[in-house]
Amino acid sequence: MRRLLLSAPSPYPGHLARLRLSDARIRGQLDLSEAAVQDAVRLRRCRLDDAPRLEGGQFEAVELDECRLPGLYAHSARVTQEFKVTRCTVNGTLDLRSLSVGTHLLFQDTTSAPHRGKPESMRSPSPWTSPSGRPAWTAPGRSL
Questions:
Q1: What residues are paired with 65 via a beta bridge?
Q2: Which of 45, 79, 89, 91 is the most exposed place for a label (fewest CB within 10 A)?
Q3: Average pLDDT, whole number, for the chain?
Q4: Mapped to the 3 state alphabet, what secondary structure does the chain carry?
């Protein structure tokens, strides 16, 4: 997917370039850290085996809808338009430190909980996880 996003041909005149993926299981890590993706990335009802890495990347738009993620790393990512995470379950670290979003940031009906099965001392620190092991953060359908 990284190769497709970074070396995709230019869109036809009058069309928008974007990646839309629905109902897929993504094996291996989606590593877009430090990448410059000039297209929209939209994943719907996808299940990822590894936490996507977007750290330091530049994106036109990122939308995750009804996805199951074992974490999400977007530290210092820059998004020109919108960054949406809706109806997702994040079972692991949610790292959004220094995320820069140009026009619209939305977390709606999304739940984040620490990864089960790892001892507390092995978990990565995150402002979104609680030491008690209960979901630390839930977005009740509000725009930030």
A1: 44, 86
A2: 45
A3: 79
A4: CHHHHHCCCCCCCCCCCEEEEECCEECCCCECCCCEEEEEEEEECCEECCCCECCCCEEEEEEEECCEECCEECCCCEECCEEEEECCEEECCEECCCCEECCEEEEECEEEECCCCCCHHHCCCCCCCCCCCCCCEEECCEEC
Neighbour-count burial for 28-37, b at 16+ CB within 10 Å, e otherwise:
eebbbbebeb
CA–CA gap between residue 140 and residue 138 (Å, rounded) = 6
Q: Please give the distance of CA 82 from its chain centroid, rounded to a whole number.
A: 12
Q: What is the pLDDT of residues 31-79, one digit of tens each?
A: 999 998 888 889 999 999 999 999 999 999 999 999 999 999 999 999 9
Angstrom distances, CA of residue 129 to CA of 3, 33, 99, 144: 32, 22, 18, 19
- Read off the pLDDT of residues 119-144 as tens digits, 9 standing for 90 and up: 443 344 444 444 454 445 555 554 44
